[in-house]
Every structure is written in structure tokens, then in C-alpha cells.
Amino acid sequence: MDEFALIRQIIDGLGSVTSRSNVLVGPGDDAAVLRPRQDWDSVASIDTQIVDRHFPRQAPADLIGYRSMMAAISDLAAMAADPNYVLVALALPDSKLCNSEWVGRLVKGIKEAAETSGVVVAGGNLGRGELALTISVHGEVPANAAILRSGAKPGDVLQVSGALGGAAACVRLDQLTVHETLSELQQCYFRPRARLDLVEVVRNSANAAIDVSDGLLQDLGHMLSASNCGAELVADSIPVVLGAVLQDALTGGDDYQLLVSATELLEGFKQIGKVVSDAGLWLDGKPVQAQGFDHFREQ
Amino acid sequence: MDEFALIRQIIDGLGSVTSRSNVLVGPGDDAAVLRPRQDWDSVASIDTQIVDRHFPRQAPADLIGYRSMMAAISDLAAMAADPNYVLVALALPDSKLCNSEWVGRLVKGIKEAAETSGVVVAGGNLGRGELALTISVHGEVPANAAILRSGAKPGDVLQVSGALGGAAACVRLDQLTVHETLSELQQCYFRPRARLDLVEVVRNSANAAIDVSDGLLQDLGHMLSASNCGAELVADSIPVVLGAVLQDALTGGDDYQLLVSATELLEGFKQIGKVVSDAGLWLDGKPVQAQGFDHFREQ
Asked: Could you count the other beta carbons within 10 Å of the beta carbon of residue A203?
């Protein structure tokens, strides 16, 4: 297929999500041009989803696009940033699998995630290679109001924004093959939701925040390490998705709920433990290791 | 190798290029936080370089890193934007080739390009997959001062910032295997220079600009199409790298010189033709097709 025809198809398919009043130049030039919000800071992150590593090759293309977008956008929620725009770099293998119709469905999933999240797709790149989506995500936060991993304080309430372990259970129970409708666990894996609805409460009240993408213990470990603290967790209080088990929640990735440390329990969150001054992590009083999904260790 | 140990090695290797006064939070949190320049617009682009497509697998890792950075950063020069920051998403295959020492050299090349260009590496991502670098690049330009592809006007002087065709000749002459020192053509291919030194003159005086990444005819075609104009080129006036031929300059990519349309010849540029009102492209009076490097058509 002609590269420029395919780019044209993608831009046309994205339609209204490529433009907004703060986007002075959208896709099609050497770069996009955007007008920053006066007195707000920029928040920026980049995330890659690779075939057979982050999603199964045979998954419906719209779900690949949707999930990749949400996984990337989740980092904005974790910083308490308002969503702004994304750039999408797409690597496509030969056109047998990834033909024009497949790309059309991928774009549909990307567009839906953009609409749901309120981000503009301001630009992108198309290359030949192993199927992968790399998405840079960009948000805005009032000056100095970003919430970091490093602000947790002893005595803080540790809390999560929803049930965990669903995506991990979907993988563990070999439910990655999609039929007509998605099971509950498949919803967790393929249709995660970046918790942008909680950005305001996190920004106003959290001391530290991170999204749970590598498993609760690992991401909590990152927060505690950055904050020079420890934590005590209560196993019974950790919300687990129906069909998943506690271990899925503790060590499974891809949930994209928020883990927050704050002086009190915030609206929309559930307490799972508290921050302590001693470095270390305890579950029901027993020491545990921070662990989770490590792309370089697993095989 | 441990993912987080490798990330730590990369961040340590980048050293001083991960911080600057406008970077409030650099690598290591869910996202970077940056302070935008008051009354300037943001310019953003994303570019992927994939093994065996954009660079040879056996190339020295520092050259892969350097070239990938410059190819991406060139888009900022093409918009007349000051460089600001990049996010680097790295996909690495198994550790036989891309071991810790290899990654160290890759990081050295990325760091050198960042220093040369004045960009901060504000964040990144590490994943397992086919070797690829996806780099989102971010610059700043005074409000409404970005130079687009669409501003060329009939009567404008078409001009380029330097000799073309060197990278294409390097590939055509099968010079991609690097020994001790780089030949002139290898310099063109592996050590391109984003023309950030010309940003100010382009911003002040150009009507339209694009970087020559897909070949002169193709990139000129993009500019003319966006500007609803045509152009007449004079073959003898097109500067060609020593060792390359005119065809390399016309249809070869990866030169990363700037192609500019302006009412007069600008300092540091060489006239190659002029813009006309009739749609179409003429070389020494004969009609030619816009053509160049197309990743999806070539095989």
C-alpha cells in the first residue's frame, strides 16, 4: 500500500479528534503546533505497546488501538494532569494482516479512546516493522500542581481507585481470544479506563500518585522508594476484580487504576493500608518484596 | 537483564542531558513536567527508526542513537522552532546483541545528539521487541511564528541549506558497513545534522519550510501541494554531495537539509529554482513526478 494514501486514510479516519482550538497545526506538516495554557505546566510521557508482548497478534484491531491509547494516557491521570494531546507512531508489518481494513479498525479504537479521554491526536508517524504502537501523551496541570511519586508521608492513607487484578487474571486464565462479546476479565484487559475522572480530586488532595501498570506491589514500591517511606497493607482491604485472585492484584499489571497516598481517604478511593516511616513493605504484618511485571526478566 | 536496572543505567548514562531549568520533573516519574515559555507555541512531532529499515542491524550503536535523534529533531528546524525536549521509546530484542555495553554506546550517541542540538531527554520508555527507537521531539516558537509547508507563493525563491544525496549514495554504493573512520558518504548517512543553526533565519524570512527526509522531489511535492503552487527547478543549481549523483539528491532521503521558499535568497541557502502558480514540477523545463522514499511501496 502507498504510504501517503495510508496516512491520508488514518487522518481521515480520525476525523474530528485531530483538531481543537488549541491545536494551531494538526497532522500533515513536519510537526504539530499547539498553544499552551498560560500559567500551566506541560506533562509528557511516552509508552510503547508491542505485538505478542503487550497484546496478542490476533486481537481485534480496535481493541489494540483503544488499549494502547488508554495505557499511555493513564500516566497523565497519575500526574493529576488534564489530557491535552497525543502523537501516535505506528509500526506495521506487511499488509497481509495489517491491511487497509485492519488499519481502519485500529484507527476506530484510537479515535474512541481519544474521544473518551479528551485528547487530540495532533500528529503521528508510520513505519514498516514489527507491529507496535508508540504513543507520546501530553497533558497540562496548573503551575507546580503536578502530583509526583515522591510526596508520600508517614501516616498517609494508601488508597486505590478501583478493583485490581482483572487484566492479569485475563492473561492467567488464557482468555485473550476475543469472541463476540468481551467477558468481564477481557473488559479489564482490552478496555481499561484511564482514571482521568479522578484528576481533580488527586490534584487537590493527594501527596503522591502513580498508576498501577506493573502490579500493585511493584508500583507501590516505586512510590515508597521515591518517597523514602515504607507501607503496611491489609490484604482483605485490597479490592480484587471478580474472577481474579489477590495474587493477580498484587503482581499483575495493566489495571491502570490509581494508587494514591494522601492524609485522608479521598472520594472515589478505597483504603488498602498506610504509609510508615520505616523503609519496607508489609502485608498483614509480614514483609513482602516489591515485585511485578518486568519485561526484561520474565523470559 | 533487569528492566529497572537497565533504565537506571540509561538515565545515569544520559547524565546532564536529562535536566535543565525548565524541566521541573525529568525521567523517573510517571511523566515529565516542563514549564512552557510564556507567549510561545509548542511544536511537537514523533519519528520511528526501525532496524534493517532505517539503519543496519550491525551499525555501531552510538551511530544508531545519534542518527535517530537527529532525524527526529530535524522536524523542529523545519518548523523554525527552538529545540526543547525529547522523549525516547526504545524497543530492544534479546540481550545477545543489545546487551548492557551496547545500550551504553547507544545512550552515548543519544546524549551527543542531545548536547549538539540543545534538547533535554525528559523521559522515555523501554520495551522488548524488534530493535527500534521512537522519539517524540518538542520545540518552542514565538506565538504564531511557526513556518509551515503551506506558505509558498508564486515568485518565491526555492532554496536548500546544503548539498543533498549523500545518505542515498551511501546506501546505493553499499557503504553501510562501518570500519574505523567514516567516509564522507557515511558521515552523511550516520551523522546527519539537524539544521537548528538556521532556525532564526527561517523563522524571520521563510514563507514555507520542510526538511528533506524523503528526497527533494517528494518533499518539494509536499510543500507545493500544501501551498497550491508548482515549481521550476534548475538541475545544475541543485547542490550534490561529492560522491553522489543528481538522482541521489532528487529521490534519496535522509539528508535532513532544509528546503525553504522565501521571497529572496536567505543567508546560508542556495537557490535551486522558483515557485510558480501552475501546479506541477519542472526540472530544466521538463515535467517530473514528485517521488522519493516510500516505506510501503518499496518492496
From this structure: 18
